[in-house]
Structure formats: structure tokens, C-alpha cells
Amino acid sequence: MAMTLNFNYDTENQVLFTGNSSVKYVILNRPGKLNTLNHVMVSQILKNLRLYENDFSIKLVILKANGKAFSAGGDIVSLITSSLAGHWTYPLSFYRKLLMLNHLLVTCKKPIVSLINGVAIGGGAALSMRATFRVVTENAVCFSFQNKIVTAIETFISILYKRLK
């Protein structure tokens, strides 16, 4: 019997892409889930950032989030659920896309400004800290518990934390 996996995502509104011809906004929009990142979100952000990078009219990309958290990291529930159900390709594909997104954020030719309000944890902290510029509010809390277990995605974040002032 084949297993099916359905997370019932509202994929239309998880990430909002707005702006004008020169400034684009990428807005994480899962406030009820503290903007935890899933495969759909990471794929959409990666796809749009690639388009923005190659569009000469776009001068700036602003990364922000709706709700009280910037991002509480990866959607661990979906990763564990898919793994337990035998769908190993989901977590592998998610982490592959996340690594590609993190690389693009660091190497992007366009300046990216990350507006951090609320918690930015793990993958969410990595996402926000890899932007060209970071604007942090007095309500922001950034940390990455993965530094204790040294995952490849989060290793670079410890270097960035040391440089924050």
C-alpha cells in the first residue's frame, strides 16, 4: 500500500511577493506557525530571488515577516512526519533547497535587507543573517541551537553572531 503525504499547506499565501519595479519585498506569511520554513516556502523564495537577481530594474530586495516572529526555523513537524512515513525525499529536498537559498543569499548581486522583528531561530536566523544588511528591532531575539550540534546549514551563523554589534 502506497503512503501519501499531505500537509494541507495554503501554498498561495505562505510567502508574499510584493513591491514595485525597483524594490521587491519577500514576506514570510505563516504567523500562526511562527513563520517556520517548509519546502514550499523555501522553493518559492529561491525561485523569486533568482528572478530578482537577473532583473536589472530591481535594485533592492527586502526580506521580512508577518506576525510576532521573523521565523522559528524549519518546519520540523513536517520533516519528522515525512521521515516517519517513509518519505525520505522530502527532508532531503528541503535541506538541499535551503542550502541553495542560503548560498544565493550570500552571493546575490542585489542587496538584500533583512528586517528582523521577534524571534529568528535556527534556519530562520540563518536566513535573516545571510542578507547583505540586517535591521534588528528591540524585540528581536536571534539564536541557533544547531551550533551545539554543528549542522552544515548553521555553521556559518556562529561567525555572523560574533560580528554583530
TrEMBL record:
Catalyzed chemical reaction(s): 3-hydroxy-2-methylpropanoyl-CoA + H2O = 3-hydroxy-2-methylpropanoate + CoA + H(+)
Q: Name one Pfam family in it.
A: ECH_2
Kindly indicate whether the keyword Hydrolase belongs to this entry.
Answer: yes
Could you tell me which pathway this protein works in? Amino-acid degradation; L-valine degradation
Occurrences of domain Enoyl-CoA hydratase/isomerase (ranges)? 24-141
Q: Which UniProt keywords apply?
A: Hydrolase
Per the entry, what this protein does is: Hydrolyzes 3-hydroxyisobutyryl-CoA (HIBYL-CoA), a saline catabolite. Has high activity toward isobutyryl-CoA. Could be an isobutyryl-CoA dehydrogenase that functions in valine catabolism.
Q: What is this protein called?
A: 3-hydroxyisobutyryl-CoA hydrolase
State the organism of origin: Arachis duranensis (Wild peanut)
Q: What is the lineage of its organism?
A: Eukaryota, Viridiplantae, Streptophyta, Embryophyta, Tracheophyta
* Originating gene: LOC127747646
